[in-house]
Amino acid sequence: MAEAVYVLCAVTSIVCAVLLLRGFRSSQLRLLLWSSLCFVGLAVNNVLLLVDLILVPETDLALLRSAAALGALSVLVFGLVWEAR
Are 52 and 61 in contact (CB under 8 A)? Predict the structure, then answer.
């Protein structure tokens, strides 16, 4: 059951990133770009979670997952600060 939740979270993040990128392409609003890059990072985080806990449980990818999540959220915070100027 947990595997299904991990897969659905990864798929949801990927779909959100694609939809945000499509919105950015049509409207050229940079905040959509920053948000889509954040969701790409969150999708990477979710895929790493799936790999870490399901595919290769003997290895610990927690540091790599945390770095991906930190990078994704840092991109969003940077984009929000940049667009506020």
Answer: yes
- Residue 58 token pair: 């003997």
What pTM, to 2 d.p., does this model score? 0.91
**CA–CA dist 59, 49 (Å, integer):** 11
Place of tokens 């840092």: 74
The DSSP-derived string for 21-42 is HHHHHHH--HHHHHHHHHHHHH
Total residue count of the chain as it appears in this document: 85
Structure token digits, residue 70: 């930190």
Q: Could you tell me the two tokens for 16?
A: 């959100």
Separation CA 83–CA 85 (nearest Å): 5
Evaluate if residue 76 carries a pLDDT over 90: yes
Estimate to the nearest angstrom the gap between the alpha carbon of 46 and the chain centroid: 7
